[in-house]
Each structure stands twice: as structure tokens, then as C-alpha cells.
Fold these 4 entries.
Entry 1:
Amino acid sequence: MTAIPLLSADELSVGYGAEPVCAPVTVAVAAGTALGIVGPNGAGKSTVLQTLVGLLPPLGGTVQFDGRDVDEREAPFRRAVATVLDDDAFFPSLTGAEHLLLTARGHGVGDPERAVAAQIEVFGLAERAGALPSALSSGQRRRLALAAALVRPFRLLVLDEPERRLDAQMRRRLAARLAAAVAGGAAVVFASHDADFVGALATRVLVVDDASCPVVPTADAVAALHEG
């Protein structure tokens, strides 16, 4: 018997109004794998991600999580799927540490204080953990958003250019942290322009374009990214 993919899209058309922004997407993502999404600026990568997690309705085709149509309003889906699609999804009156602690407790993390301390260490936020999000730099807000996604349990993690505004050392640290999540059985779907980041993490790569959206081996996608 064939296992049901954790996340699947079949002839998924994405866009705004009635106008698709790229060719239809057909892809299956199994637990314990990472799908990279690449393409030029404006190709539709972010729109694909938002449709995969139910923030935008499909223009056509289907998208399913664990064999059911995606509905981001359903509690089981929200418990299983973590996202980082922007840097502004914070409680403005809570410090970074308080935001992480609320997230961890809300998702039933055992020993939430320890889990928060670990993420603060990983993302180098110790000196700014007591600051409000509005007082953080754009790079610090990016790291806080990633810490908030990783401090909670998830079966699927969806990230839009997670390496953005991170220095080279932090990019490598993040890639290793995400690879460990994949090795532990989670699935990761991420859009990126960084060839080294894609090469370090992706199991396969979806190339988003207006003519077609093929799924290709990671090595082929990385070579194309290096060529520019």
C-alpha cells in the first residue's frame, strides 16, 4: 500500500482574482523530506507557499495535508503546521522571550522555559530577548520569527526565504537545525534564492515559472542557481 504524502498538490493553480501567477504545481512532500522552491523574483514562490497552507484559495486543482483538503481554520492543521511567511506576526506588547514562551505553552511544549532558552541560544537573541519586537532590527525579527516556529511541535514547517537577512554563520546554523528536524521525521517546504542553503537542506526542488513548474534533483537546481 502506498503511503499518503504529508502534503500534496495536484495541478494546483495559484494567484489572485482569476489570474494565475505561474504554471500549475503538482508535487508530493513526504514526512522526513525537504522541498526547496526556487524561481526568479516575482515568479510566484510566495503565492505557492501561501496557497499550500490555505492562506490563499486555489484558483484550480487541489492541495491536501495528510490526505485531507487544506483548511487553515481547522485546529488539527494549525497544530501540525508551523509557518514563517513574514517577520511581523508578533504580539506587539510582549517581549521576544515572552512571545516565545506563550507560543511554547500554547502548543503544550514540555518544560517551555527550557525550550525557549534553547531557541534564544540557537538564534543568538540572548542580549535582545527582553526587547519588544518593534525595538529589534530586521535581522533580529527574522531570527525571532524562526525561533517561534521552531520552539513548538510541528509535522510540517513552511518557510518563505528563511535565510533572508541572516549572516553566513546563522544561515549554516539554520540549515543544520532544519536538517535535524527533517531527520526527525518532519517535512520542510521552503522558498529560497540561496544556492548553498538549498543544497544543504533540500531533498528535491520545485522550480516555479510561468511555463512549467517541474520538480528536479537538488543538484540540478543548485547548479542553475549558481549560474544565475
Entry 2:
Amino acid sequence: MLLRIKGLIPSDKLTIVRGILDSADFIDGKLSAGKEAVSVKNNAELPQNHPEMARLNNIVMGLLVNHPTYQYGVLPHRIAAPFYARYTPGNQYGYHVDDPIMGQADRYRTDVSITVFLNGPDEYEGGDLTLMTATGEVKHKLPAGDAILYPSGSLHQVAPVTKGSRLVAVTWAQSMVRDPAQRELLYNLSQARDELLGSEPESEVTQKISTTYINLVRMWAEI
């Protein structure tokens, strides 16, 4: 299941984020790459000990983890600290699948990957986030402030940047519901449930839908 969050980060917050990133010194992105990705990863990342990292995370992650699409689509159990990546001409991230387990002392399973676009598509050429699906390649190059959520087991790449600079935040989550098909069913059911709770909160149908959603989460959740 692919989910897009439009306008996750408003323009005033994006200005703060861009101000920090535009003046920051980045390091080689290979330093954080996993065993498979290290051979295909070519970008730069903000050091995790950067003095403004907490401020960045308060904005980006604060907005992300509280967004209802994230909450219902991910059903998060564990949330990873993000990486802030920059792609300049010649940079790319070849086709790969995200490592199944990440983290050091506090390890987590990667179920859902999230990319938050921090600058606009008019600021660089190339750099499409390309996901391989059952129907072929699907490319994403979203406006600044938008985010996309996709299964971490998806084969995906960032196409070569040929001009300008691409800025993104990338993070992962371990879901309470491991199976992506079950998460998709729960997400769709949650949308129907919320619509009915808003329009017909006392109806028998609403109560049945709500009860079914709650008990499916109870049946499938692992905590």
C-alpha cells in the first residue's frame, strides 16, 4: 500500500528546515548504508550529531507521527530517527530493499518506509523515487512538504540527479501489524469507520464497522 500525505510540513516550517539544511555540512551517505545498500548508495547525509538535529526532528517527526494518515496507515509500534539526505548531480540510490532490521541498541523491524520531500521538484532534475510494483515502475517526485509511505520490502531506487539538489528526510517504522495486506485492510476500514462516525455515529452499521475494526486490530496486533 502506498499512501501520500499532502502538505505534511507547512511553508513556514519548511523555511526553518531549509535554513538548517542549506547551511549544514553533510557527510558521505554510505556511512549509514546496510550490507546490500552500500554498493548502490551515493548521496550525502546530515550527521546524526548535528547540533540542530533535535530541532529538525521536532518539526519533521513531530508533524509526521501525529498525522492521522500515518497513524492509521502505519499503526506504529516503534519509530526510527530520520536521516536527512541530499542528492546533487551524479548522486543516486540504486535499486535496493531496505534492511529488515535496523538500529543499534534499540533494534526494530522495518515494515513501513517514509520519504518526506523537503524541496520542490522544480529545484532539481532526475531524482525520482521509483518503486517497483506488480504493474511496473511507479515514480514519485512530490512537492516540498509532502510525504510518501510504502512497504519497506518494496524494491525501490532514487534515480540519478542530473541538476540541482534534492533534499529529503527518510525514516522507518515497525508496525503493530506485520502483514502489509492486513495493514491495508485496516486502513481502508478505518477510513469508512471515521466517515460513519462523523455522519451517523449512533447507527447500527457504524457500531458494527467500528467494532470490527477494533477487534481486527486486537486480533492482528503484535506488541
Entry 3:
Amino acid sequence: MIRVLIVDDSALMRKLITQMLEEDPEIKVEGFAINGRDAIEKARELKPDVITMDVNMPEMDGLTALQYIVEENLGRVLMLSSLTQEGAVTTFEAIELGAFDFVPKPGGTVSINIKQIKQELIEKVKAAAASRSRTIAARGKRDTKNTYMLNHGKRDDIYSPGSFKAIAIGISTGGPKTIMDVLPLIPEKINAAIFLVQHMPPTFTRQYAERLNNACSIKVTEVEAGMNVEKGVCYVGKGGYHLTIFKTENAAKIRLTQKPEHRFMPSVDVMMDSVLSAYGTNTIGVLMTGMGDDGASAMVKIKKAGGKTIAESEETAVVYGMPREAVERGGADYILPSYEIADKLVQLVEERE
């Protein structure tokens, strides 16, 4: 049984969240807190597996409470964030402070439409509980395992003339934190363009790209229709649209589309299929932490077509869903912890045909 503490200053929200969660027989709401200070006290008392945390509350807000909860390891925290630009900024601050992940409230702080997120909320509560049940000791190794980067630094010679490769990365639950084990370690002059799909609401992807850009040597940008694809740039899928590529005589360009219909927009499968069509054997697929199987089919196609593929190992995956599907379907050339993926990507880009 997964034990949950709900933190929200709205009695209506506490009631609706409880109803949604307890429709699943594996989840039990153990208690409630009406603000951040109350949340810390209740978490110390109840020792829940997962804490759903509102952000804007009187006396002590959710971000402040999060820091105490993370410091004392009182439970995995799932932030409930409003679907606004301000909500996006706060959400990424929460993830940097140690929140497990977030679920967007569809109607703001008090959301009468909150039942729209029932499936996502239940899935992420279960994922948070599962991640807490094991210790991911491998994360402590990431600073010492990137030996290639440590020994070579920012290589100028990998910015070779001629055609460049394409790295297609798919990631979901746990992704905003895990991707920091990879992208900041990619050298600025890598001879590849990078395409990144993170399952995320439309109002969040621009802020996500901006934060990654501040942390990385390469340029990171949210895609816009018609952009030219250049090496040394990471193109982040825009929420609400699929990221696809088309080639002209002189360049590859970004195309945004809402077809085909898919649970996720952007979809990893759609993006990877498009990148493979444009770059063929010069495609490198990477599938990381996330629920479900988005991207697994495309990884198999990339491998069969002669490209290279990397699946994140269970050792570091917050949720070993998407990468496991790729592995079980035979779509992974390499199975690596997150802290070794950047290393391998640079090596694969440098390989000559």
C-alpha cells in the first residue's frame, strides 16, 4: 500500500485529490496538511511514501517546505503546479531543490477540472513510491565516471567538416533532473544536432529549454517551425506539437505538427522516426527514464536501419519503463547509467563510417 500525504490549503482540492487517488486500491491517503509548516510536521509524524505538494500556501509555501522534507528524507515530493509561465518557473525550481516530479493543475491553484489529471497523478504517485523503495547509489558516481570528458575536455577536433550526425533523445517522468546527467556534459563543438523530447505541458517547454541552455555548453532552444537544423544545438520539442524534420536541397528544417494523434505531444516515437528518415545511419537514439513505451518502437527501427541506440539502465532510471521496453524489444545497442551516456554519445559521434 502506497501511503500519501496531501498538502493543499484548499479543502476542495484535498477532497478531490483524495477521491482520485483512493480510486486506486494500491493507494491510501494517510493525512492532510494545510500549509508548508503543517506539511513538515505531518510528514515527520506519518512518514508517508509520497507527498503531493501545492506551491502557493499561507504561512509557509511549498518550495520552502520541500527543502526541509528533502533534507530530512521525509518522502518523495510530487509538486502540483499551475499551468502558467510563473508555474513553470516555480516547478523547475522545485525539481532543482529535490522534488521527484510534477503534475500540472489544469485550472490553476483551485482547479475544479483537476480530475483531468487523475491518470497522470496516480501513475506518478506510484512511480515516486517505487523510486523511494530503492536507493539509487549510482547517482553518486556521476562526477567520477565521465572519464572521457575529464581527460579530453572540450574537444575542437570533433567539429569536423562535412555532414553531421543527429542525436534523438526521449525522456519523461524524472527527466528534468536526469537530463542534467547528460546535456551539460556534451561539448559545445560536437559534430551533431540534438533533438530532445520531454513529455511536458505546452507552457513549460520554453522555460525548460531556457534552464537547460543556462546549464549547458551547447545551445539549447525550444523549437519553432522553420528553424534550420545546425550542429552544436539541442532542439527541445514544443509542448502540444510533434517535433519533426524535413530536408531541403541546402538544409534540414524543423516542422511542427499535431498529427498523428498521440497521448503525448511531442511524442518520442514521432520525433525519432522523423530524425531517422532525415539522417538515416547517422542517427543515434537515446531513451531514458519514463513511464510507458513511447520511443521504444523507434529505437528498434533506428538500430535495424544501422544507426546506434542507447537505453538508460535500471541502475539510474527514476522510472525504468520506456528504456526497459526498448531493451526488451531488442532496440538497444548500449545499456548505460545516465552518467555514462554523454561519454558514449561523444564517442559515437566521433566514429567514422
Entry 4:
Amino acid sequence: MKTLSTSLILLVAVLLVDIETALGQCTYTSKPAGGNFNSPGTWIVSGEGCLGSSTPTTPTSTDVIKIVSAVTLDINFSLSGTPNGKESGVMTISSNGSLREAPEILRILNIDRGTLDIEGVSAPNTSQPQLDVSQLNVNHTILGQFIAKMRIGSNSTVNVGCLLLGNQGGIDLAQNARLIVSGNIDVQTGNGSINGSALSSSDLADVHIVGEFTGVNGGTRNVFSGNLTWCMEGRDRPNCAATGPVQDPPTGGNPFCRPLPVTLISFTAQTRPSGVKLDWATATELNNDYFEVQRSASGQTFAPISQVPGSGTTSSGATYSFTDPAPLAGSSYYRLRQVDRDGSEAFSAVVVVTGPQQLEALIYPNPGATTITLPTGTGQPVDYRVYTATGRTVLAGRMAGGTSFDVQQIPAGLYLIELTTAGQRHVQRFVRH
């Protein structure tokens, strides 16, 4: 009986572990406006048992993560599995989504018994990778099996600084997919694989390595397989960690790396007194004709508002800036349409910014004004001038935003009030009874 009881206890314990694991995996879907990865406001949480107070407000390593908008990786993050092997983290980046670190803030994405799927897009888009991180680690899978833990869909682009391949860690690239490694590839323990799954030689996947191979001796021999092209520039990249010395690259690569296309490494928007300032930078450019700046009030339908010339072809990249002098009231959505000299195009991720508050006084009542309250929000004093339709000034001064003043002393009639502050100017009408 003692043996039987012990067996029953062990069985119940195993079942409880499985139940706990099943209840622990939640689905996190990014909201349309995106945001920081580690911000609760970025995510919609769903799944049975995943809406209680004990549910983490941001994704954990074993959750299902669906990125359908622009998300900034503001922490180092791992996709991993449970100890019993029943579940593992799954991250999907949709054709409209992206996961990128903030400019000049290095982040690590670790795939260890987890799965990363980057969905394909309708046309090649190398100017704005769906995944862009400083270091990507693709580690081992289920013991004794080789299953690719990262898949890059057709026409999609991934840009990483340093790539670490662990034991049996694999990356599959579909047709016309592209993997750009601006640093080194380190093969930590051998058996790592980068595989092309294209169906024909006309739509091969492509791997471009700016740095070198480091790691275990002989571990580079079988890294590349399937239908893909690859090249290695062999530049020294000391910022990438190495588990072994520099290794000879495997045979079969293209000894002449073609220039990288336009690779956008940052795109930001900031509210300024003069409007909304957009800044972006490229790492490399190939036949870049121009950037078309587009704006939207909803984030769905965009219209062009300006055009900025590109730098043609450059291996050192370039920086650009444009200020929208008349942003929309409330939120404005911006994106870039990059156009090559042959007419091909690619679109950036979308950035959203709240423009300057409308410079408007509160006139009460109107008609019949007795009191005017100056607008707040600029943080600076407001110059005001009340004048008649013929241009004669009847009141003028400077006060802090939010301050009210009386206009009962001026005669009845139609007036205009001119407001000026922080580089903004606004005129509105009112009637004094």
C-alpha cells in the first residue's frame, strides 16, 4: 500500500504540473498604436485563466506573443520552455508588425526552446526590418531533434548586430527573405543551421554577414543549407561576444557581397514649438532616390506631405530630418515611403505623436463675451491682442496660460483676439453684447 500511495502522489503531482502549465500560458497581442514591449499599455491579454489580478501585465517567456504593430524592445527578453517540455513561448511578428530596439540602446532577444515566426510580406521590404535587435541568440531545441526555432517569412527582412547559434539552433528563410548580420556569427557548440526553403533558384533567400565567423572549430562547416545565397565581408566586429576564435567560413558563399539596400535604423517623431520634427537614419543605401513623408489622422489611410531626397548609394549611411509645420490636432501618425531610382518602394513602420495643443482661448459666453481665459499647455506666457474688424487694438497684454481677464469694459460689437506663444499664432472671433 505504501508503494501504491507513493505512486498515486507522484501521478497527481505530475498532473498538477501539467494543469498549472496549461493555465499559465496567456496570449498577448499588441495594440494598434504599439508601444514599449515592457509597458502594460502596449498589450491586450487573452486566454483562459489569464484575466485575473495575478496575470502579468506584460509578456513572460512562455507566453504566446502576437506583434501586429510597431513595438519597441526596451528590455532583454527570452522565449523559453517549461521544465516539463509541455509548453514554450511563441512570438509571431505579423506583416504589419515590427520589433525593434530604441536607437543606441542595445537589446538581446534570446530564443531558447521557444519559437519566433516572422510572417511574410507581399513584396520585399529591406528598408525597414520587421525584427531589428543588437543581439539574437538562437539556442537548442528539444533534445535529440532538429526543429528550426526561428522562421523568416517570404520577402521579410531581419537585421541583427550579433548572431549566436547554439546547439541545434536553427533559422529557416523562405523565398526572398533576407537576414542581415552587421556583426559576427558565433557558433557556440556546433550543429546550428541557417536554411533556405525557397522552391526555386529565382527566389532564393539571402544572408549578408558584415563580420566574421567565430566559435568552435569546425562548427561553421554545415551552417548554411538549402536554397539560399550568402556572403561574408569578413570585417572585424569586436563588439560581438565570441565563444571561440575566428573560423574559416564554409565554402559555397558568394565572395563578392553586393551592397546592402536602404536599411533604416531609426525613425522618430517629437513635438516641438515649430511643429512635429521627424528624424531618421540609415545604415546603408543602394540607389536611394527619395523618401516620401506620409501622414494620417487614424493610422490607416496615409497621404504624402513632403519629399526628402535620398543619398543614392552609400555604405556609411545618412541622417535625415523634416518638420511638419502644421500637424493635425490631437494624434498624428507618420510613416516613410522609400523609393529607389528604379521605382521600387518600401515603407517604414508607423510612429505616432500628439501634436501641439490647439492655441485657443475660452470665451464665455460667446456671443455676449464677458470673460476670456487664455489657453494652457505651452508652458510659456501668452501674448494677446483684442482688436476691431478695422484693426484698432482695444486690449493687449501678456499673461500666463490659464489666466482669465474681463472684457466687459469694451463696447459691444464684433472683435478678434490674436494669441501668440511658443512660435504659434492663432486668431479667433467673438461678439461682445
